[in-house]
Amino acid sequence: MPQRASGAGDIADDMTGDRFIPRLPVAFLAVSYSPGRVADPAGPGGEQRVRAAAALLTGAPPVAADPGDRLTWVRTARPGDAAAGPGGGFTAWLVQPPGGTVTAGELSTLLAPAAGRPAALSAAAARALGRCGAPFALVSCAGRGHPLLALTDPLGIRQLYWHQGQGWAALSTSSLALSWCAQAALDHEALAVRAVLGFHLRSDTPFAGIRTVPGGTVCALSGGTVRMGNTAALPLPELEVPASLPDLARSTARLLRAEATAALDDNPGLVLQLSGGLDSRVELAAIPPAQRAGLRALTLHPPGGPDGPVARRLAAGCGLDHQVLSLEGLASLSPAEAWRLVRAAAIRHDCAGDAAAHAALDWADRHSWPGARIHGTGGEIARGFYYRGQRQHAEVTPELVDRLAGWRLGPDAADLGCLANGGAAWAQECARAQIREVFRGYRGDWLSALDEFYLRHRVPRWAGLRLTVAATERPLLGPLMGPEFVARARACPVEGRRNSRFLAMVLMELDAGLGRIPLDTGYVPADLASARPAARGRRRAAEVRLLAGWTRRRLAGAPRLPAGSAVLAEATLAQWRRQPGDVGGVLRTGLIGERWLAGLLDGRYGTDARTVGFLAGLQAVADGADALRAELPRSTGLTPAGA
Asked: What would the pLDDT profile of 480-496 be if each residue is shown by its tens digit?
């Protein structure tokens, strides 16, 4: 049934080898057929095509957990992350869960009472899973003849995907694998929005008919049909606003201190991701001072970046065992090596994100400490990520949405000149239309709507892609994405979230000394937390400097890029110019202009790192189609276990 992955070393080998898939240590694919279905084995949903997709996804001869009207493949990184049940039943984590998390065996028992009620959870299971922090996902089946249930965390950070075909349906950890099963076409509109925003909206993926499973919702697969619960089985908890902002900060500090203490107890060798920013500072402050000495901390330090010096000061003051990982080594990669790294990152992240940025993080993870890791992703939920340059309004209006789309979201765009047939205007209108659709679902004031947009779309479809991959390779702890913290962040008044005041107040409650050390931005958390006139003046001066720099970059068309992505993109482009066939597959997608690509490859003009990352994802889609065609002839003789 579930197979043990051979570990992160395989990933490194795949990134430098000739095999198509840089396989993740956790993978899942299940396809269910309606009774009596007879179809072309190599056609959409056909067993030959499904088996070929499973072989590419799992990297081993596929083992079917439940033959009959459903084919299921599950691969876990550690034996304890899956539990077999009677009658062919099983339960498996689709991440590497941190220590202290409910085990797969315990989950199997908790989920059994709901097995006969598709798209439901027992109260006991909901309570146990409600204490788990994102990202997580699981799959469970009570046995032959029962529906297969899949569930992701309340925010949908750990990506799962589904497809409903004619007489068949499927679930997977990979939208790329589902696109192979379904013989799905590219969703040009979704890709156009991705090019404009840097991330997908709604439940879209690069592939038509392949959608993400909503956060916290039980998805049931049975009889050739996917069914979703009408409401989230794991909704985010609601929190009444306390009497004062200081009360909310104090209760949040107590929550984070308790969670940090438990994390250290349950995860020996825990590594803290430490940057120069506020979110990781809060995570450090939550660790009791007596337990900081010798704690391992990791800082990613781009050459010339501000994170390294700030993190070194914090580490020295707390006695941390500190690893500062410079990205200078990326410059030593040959163009061919850089392209293999970027291509592998595109595949690992389902061709849906910035492949150049993700490749730099993949490289860094291969050179960093192993083990469970605590990170600060999600803190922006509590500090108004989209507030810069925005004023409060009593309600959401189309004019506000359009201004947001044109100004605040633009810096993450690829070069829209790459799109075929003058597609830039069309792509921008697709993005505006989708953003308008999303914001029509929000009621209340403008800034609160911005927070919901960030929470429901930017976090899962941006950071979630990276965390999905990372959570299959090591246990991740993200207290700032835990349900109780998110509830407090959402209960915080808008003026508390603005200028990071609430999170700075939490930091001061945890460790005022750490709050007096400047951040990498120049802000001092103690000033952010204070309402005194002098503190407001210092905060305003820092804000003016930051806003001026941001505006200059925006007007110059030179947004700040993710660490390491520019170096890898430059080397990847050099490889494409040496071997144009390496990127020729993007033309088969019908999305990229032939003349534009020819000009890029012959050196008449260049492009930016985000566009290289976008093109790499499209090329990986084309490569995947070729790999599947090669795998299909080898997929006819595979015999499911127990058949």
From this structure: 999 999 999 999 999 99
